[in-house]
Amino acid sequence: MTADAASLAVDPGAIAGIGALPGAQRVKSSAGMALSKARTGATRDKAEREQDRLQSRAEETDLIREAQAGSRAAFDALVRQYEHQVLRLALHLTGSEHDAEDIYQEAFFKAYRYIGNFRFECSFYTWIYRIVTNLCLDQLRRRKTRREDNAVVMDRSGEEIDMLATVSDNRSFSNPARELDRKVLGERIQAALEKLTPRERMVFELKHYQGLRLRTIGEMLNTTEETAKNTLFRATKKLRAQLAELR
Q1: CB-based contact 209:92 (threshold 8 Å)
Q2: CATH number at residue 101
């Protein structure tokens, strides 16, 4: 081997040890630092969210205590915080604008009247939802007693409301057949829901339309999580039987 060839020979050991070179170490160190910062940032974001949640809960607790002490302004602040959720829940559960507005007013009237009985054993959210669901449950039971046909949802002027119209789907306007299918499906689902018992319908809608946990639903209906789970199972089984031909 000539001197020139010897000078070009590469030591395999040197290749294996390239990671030990200063430049490579800096790259490796930078990557590790970036990963560490990312993890730290995610942990910090989670901690900040938890801190915000606790802060919000503390502020709500202060409002409740002030309302219990007689502050109408504090109670009005609670109403503003939950009024849209309450009205939306009542509208969805009853399918009637008139009933939803009545229940909305009665729910907050009861909340104001009995705010002194609030013992902080649950969130105000759960407490007001419990009042609303019980009022809706009573309304649905009265409908069953009167044998009303509520497959079609009406507004206060007597006009039909398409509950699915609130779901954004720009494609439906360019496809009349799809829009008709959606309307027919919505009517069939509504009719199937009407055949459930009031409590079965309530649990099903709270779970699948409101996204609430079974434990929370049980608390709202003054029952256990297991009972709510069994009720949901019965409701789902009935709905599947009613809508089997649509599969």
Answers
A1: yes
A2: 1.10.1740.10
